[in-house]
């Protein structure tokens, strides 16, 4: 893949960002999952990484260094936020909460509790 050409195409056609996502998602998710060992957190952090990359793609200047390293940097910053806060809430989820008043992290916590009870064979109320 010629990343420099792809980045220029993304500027003109944002849907081309999907090619960047397809090319690097597994690597970014694996990087995050190995550090968090939490599947749900890794999915959230990887998603936030690509959202930030998508919204900041205009700031990225290609200098013969793979886009992957820029994505790793974004993911590392998100991991730092995750480990430095007791309750990680991706900015995109925070925006949903602020605009619509829906706390998706609370819903996912209830879902995880229900999953744990099912796995342990407990009945839930």
Defining key terms:
mainly alpha, Rna Polymerase Sigma Factor, Chain: A
Explain this structure to me?
This protein has 125 residues and is mainly α. It has a domain of 86 residues: Rna Polymerase Sigma Factor, Chain: A. It is 74% helix and 0% strand. The chain is built from 6 helices and no strands. Helix 2 packs antiparallel against helix 3 and helix 2 crosses helix 4. It is globular.
Say what oligomer this is. single chain
- Top CATH class of the domain at 3-88: Mainly Alpha
Average residue-wise pLDDT: 79
Indicate the low-confidence ranges by residue numbers.
none
Number of helices: 6
The biggest beta sheet is recorded as: none
Task: Please sum up the structure shown.
The protein is built from six helices and no strands. It has 125 residues and is an all-alpha fold.
Topology at a glance:
Blueprint: H1 3-12, H2 17-36, H3 39-55, H4 67-84, H5 91-100, H6 104-120
Helix pairs in contact: 2-3, 2-4, 3-4
């Amino acid at each position: 893949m010629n990343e420099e050409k792809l980045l220029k195409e993304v500027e003109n056609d944002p849907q081309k960002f999907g090619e960047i996502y397809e090319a690097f998602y597994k690597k970014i998710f694996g990087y995050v999952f190995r550090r968090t060992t939490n599947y749900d957190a890794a999915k959230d952090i990887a998603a936030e990484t690509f959202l930030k990359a998508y919204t900041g793609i205009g700031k990225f200047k290609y200098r013969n260094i793979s886009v992957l390293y820029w994505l790793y940097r974004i993911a590392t910053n998100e991991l730092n936020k995750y480990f430095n806060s007791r309750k990680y809430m991706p900015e995109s989820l925070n925006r949903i909460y602020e605009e619509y008043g829906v706390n998706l992290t609370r819903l996912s916590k209830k879902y995880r509790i229900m999953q744990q009870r099912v796995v342990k064979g407990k009945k839930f109320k």
